[in-house]
Amino acid sequence: MIDLDLSQLNLRxxxxxxxxxxxxxxxxxYRVLHPNGCHALAVGLTQPIEVKVEGHVGFYCAGxxxxxxxxxxxxxxxxxAENMMSGEVRISGNASQSAGASGHGGLLVVEGxxxxxxxxxxKGIDIVVGGSIGHxxxxxxxxxxxxxxxxxxxxxxxxxxxxxxxxxxxxEGLGADCVEKEMTPDHLKALxxxxxxxxxxAKAASFRRxxxxxxxxxxxxxxxxxx
Amino acid sequence: xxxxxxxxxxxxxxxxxxxxxxxRAADQGIYEIRGFGAKRRVPSFDDLILLGASVSxxxxxxxxxxxxTDVTLGTRYAxxxxxxxxxxxxxxxxxxxxxxxxxxxxxxxxxxxxTSTTTGDGGMTPEERESSETLVYQVxxxxxxxxxxxxxxxxxxxxxxxxxxxxxxxxxxxxxxxTERVAEMRDLPVGIDQRSACRHPDxxxxxxxxxxILELREITDWEKPIYAKVGASRTxxxxxxxxKAGADVVVLDGMQGGTAATQDVFIEHVGIxxxxxxxxxxxxxxxxxxxRKVQLIVSGGIxxxxxxxxxxxxxxxAVSIGSAAMVALGCNQNVHAEDYHAIGAEPGxxxxxxxxxxxxxxxxxxxxxxxxxxxxxxARRLRNYLNVMTMEVQTLARACGKSHVLNLxxxxxxxxxxxxxxxxxxxxAGTDWIPGGFGGDY
Lengths: 227, 442
Prior knowledge:
The complex is a heterodimer. Helix content of chain A is 10%, strand content 23%. By secondary structure, chain A is of the alpha/beta class. Chain A has two domains: 1-76, no CATH class; 94-214, no CATH class. By secondary structure, chain B is an alpha/beta fold. Chain B has helices at residues 16-28, 100-113, 126-131, 148-153, 180-186, 205-219, 235-244, 264-269, 274-287, 305-313, 323-329, 337-342, 367-370, 375-399, 418-424; strands spanning 33-34, 48-50, 71-73, 82-84, 88-90, 116-118, 134-139, 156-160, 172-173, 194-195, 226-231, 249-253, 262-263, 295-299, 318-321, 413-415. In chain B, strands 5-15-14-12-11-8-7-6 form an eight-stranded parallel sheet. In chain B, strands 1-13 form a two-stranded antiparallel sheet. Chain B has a two-stranded antiparallel sheet with strand order 2-16. Chain A binds chain B through residues 11-12, 15-16, 19, 39-40, 43-44, 46, 58-60, 63-64, 66, 78-79, 82-83, 85, 97-98, 101-102, 104, 117, 120-121, 123-124, 139-140, 142-143, 159, 161-162, 217-219, 221, 224, and chain B through 28-30, 142-143, 146-149, 151, 175, 186-189, 191-193, 195, 197, 201-203, 208, 211-212, 214-215, 218-222.
């Protein structure tokens, strides 16, 4: 494992090193020390390397990740793993707003809580939150799955498209066009697999499922109040 | 009157067009959604004139003396700024709003002319990348089709904050245009009305924007120029904040700028015209000592070399065309009249891009209609038009004694109306009067 110390190196050097790792290179594991809340760390990675960040990170950590596995031992600022394409991002602490925003694929695990707009505009990513999420989770979420082991704030799934939301705890309120849906055996099976992949000790049967009522997909004057 | 009765007097407050709109709203229960830009008359470049040379300064020979047109964009931070042969670029128009033939034609024409074209909401198509030598990749609030591979394939990145047709508003692509391919690119079901958000999902405000720009630079090794596109409204502040956030280039889109589908009330009533917006933007750049260091691209109602010359004289580094490029491809041409009528339009007064049934095959995903636009022929038409505009701006610049079109300056302009004089801050023609007095460094 190679150590990259942000108290000695600047952000560009660290990202450049992570981004430049070639497939099949001897060293595929990195440890980033003293991140000190820095922004845009470990962004734009394209190879299946392992990156362990020892400390808190700022905005957009692991943004647009492809294939890499990024672990943060700490908290994360806004836009964690935004527009992620594949791979896995995991943080041990809490995530600020817009975690997993517009993510297309891969798995994002927040072991603590996530703030507002978690999974906003998500496009295929799986997000598993060990704790609770703030308001407007999965706002305009298009596809993928958001799993919340704790509670969800107001406006959950507002204007949701084809994404699926699972919540174990209380839901403060559902947003426009978001409804509770039946949890079928297929859903239970898929959720159990996802919880297992995320390392969450929670039973799939204790979750409820939410998704789109599909009433706002095409304009209807009788639904104008919901816009 | 023949029957002795007085002529009925229409109301100025409720003229026929207003009555029609109220009737339509009452029938349909939805606001009017349409394409194109503002239709109302606004102070524009038509209200300015250029002051040709005479005794006080001498002109350049029209066909013998050089008048260069090249421009370099993104010189502030990017490792690889963009060099264009002409200061006329093609604005962002999405695949989805436009068909693939139109996007390809635009890319080819831009490449032939040595200029750039721009993606749009929905991402980058392979045809577009292949046909465009210099391609600007938009990062929009919806993030439809956004992926890091395309980000790295692009030549520049444009963070879209707003659009002149609808500053403060998101996008809209009605269900009839969401074909399988468009839906797949946007990760949405086929046939739904697709809404694009008005705000980015992961940042708000200039401080966040600075970090977003940092992230984009880190992902692309600081190679690509980063543009910030704003719709013209509080232009002075918006431009200053975009510069503060670290943009290499500011793209400013005035209210005449087009759209594929937006509420008419938005198009006609939100934002300010391009003319005063340029002046405000240039003042903001000068105030920060960033004029020409952060380049300014202006769009919204640019139609001719005269418009280009006037925009450059007011301080823009380049312009961008969208609607005019579509017109060059054949938009509103007097052919297939029956198809115009079928969608409630007329050749010459069609703004029905939102229907997806464009009679000339530009803003459609229907194969039979799209086949009416041959990409090669379209490219030739657009190249011709860009050539004409370039020759026009050179002609005007030479007449003002300039050996480069970017040497045009506010001193080369006068205004034909009091409004234009006040907005552009150039003197009313034949006077030294600038309403409101001098502002900025003009």
